[in-house]
Amino acid sequence: MMASIEVSASPDSAQWQSINWKAVKQHVLKLQMRIAKATREGKHGKAKALQWILTHSKSAKLLAVKRVSQNKGSKTPGIDGIIWNSDARCIGAVNQLSRKGYHAKPLRRIYIPKKNGKLRPLGIPCMIDRAQQALHLLALEPISETAADLNSYGFRPNRSAADAIAQCFKCLCMKRSSQWVLEGDIKACFDKIGHQWLIDNIQLDKRMLKQWLGCGYVDKGLFYKTAEGTPQGGIISPTLMLLTLAGLEQLVKSIACKTGNRVNFIGYADDFVITSSSKEVLVNEIKPQLIGFLQERGLTLSDEKTHITHIDDGFDFLGFNLRKYKGKLLIKPSKSNVLSFLSNLREFIRKHPTIPVNDLIKILNPKLRG
């Protein structure tokens, strides 16, 4: 019996290994470029038609399955316990990726620790749901990259937190640079985004989007419905959040034009900073408009983490502290991050009391270098 299984599986394995991935990526990239061009030209009907072609193409399905079967979470199953850990299963999964008859399964709820000691809920989709999301993400990314704010750096290809910090330096380093900074943080951003706003405004297959938003989750054997938010753990969730917040920079710049103040926006996911030469403009003009913008989308600013500070007092952003000392801007790791790093090193050394010093140095040196 085992022999027959191996024989039947081998053609699929050979088929997966013989795929020309360079040609597959080029085919998908050409379609994505056409979607982006149609979006820029305002031809939304054409963009929608191209999205349909992309999500039904064999090349996009192959890339979607490859992504979910080879990323960090590929060994973590959903509620059905299935993982795609062989070439034969991956080929089988490509053939299963069909819109017809598709129904999203509930998410498996797990919890991971946050820095402040609280727990962050994650929703783990089944492999087939992850692949469907990855497939439609290929069609949505050209639109999100076209619509996203110029100085938004989170969850975007070829952008990182380091780019956001570099932009902060450009906006704050000069003597004539803005002196006041609004540190913004959106409260439970993933968990509170309004479903109706997403359905009305995101250019994606509505049937699929509704299923992912309303599929619910299973926690400790009990099923719970989801009336708001997009699950942390879903492949498409970061891009949905990016599109939800698209337009923040444009809003800020429009207020700056009316008031005549120099204003800059730097965003990373649900964290952002707005610099201005006037504290009054930040308090009386920009902050109320931000609150209204977020309320339309079911979101609110976090009172605990939203502050207006002077650059001489400094502020923390993305794990760094930015502050001017006698007119010179210095960027260094934030105090909380340094303490956390030292605590982790102490814990590691404490757990390995018998390790030879030379081996310990080899392990710690990469951590110290960063």
Automatic annotation (TrEMBL):
Alphabetized GO MF terms: RNA-directed DNA polymerase activity
Protein's name in the database: RNA-directed DNA polymerase OrfA
CDD domains, sorted: RT_G2_intron (cd01651)
NCBIfam families: group_II_RT_mat
Keyword DNA-binding: no
Family classification: Belongs to the bacterial reverse transcriptase family.
One Pfam family matching this protein: RVT_1
Source organism of this protein record: Shewanella piezotolerans (strain WP3 / JCM 13877)
PANTHER family for the chain: NUCLEAR INTRON MATURASE 1, MITOCHONDRIAL-RELATED (PTHR34047), PROTEIN YKFC (PTHR34047:SF8)
InterPro entries: DNA/RNA_pol_sf, Group_II_RT_mat, GrpII_Intron_Splice-Mob/Def, RT_dom, RVT_N
Keywords assigned: Nucleotidyltransferase, RNA-directed DNA polymerase, Transferase
Residue span, Reverse transcriptase domain: 93-322
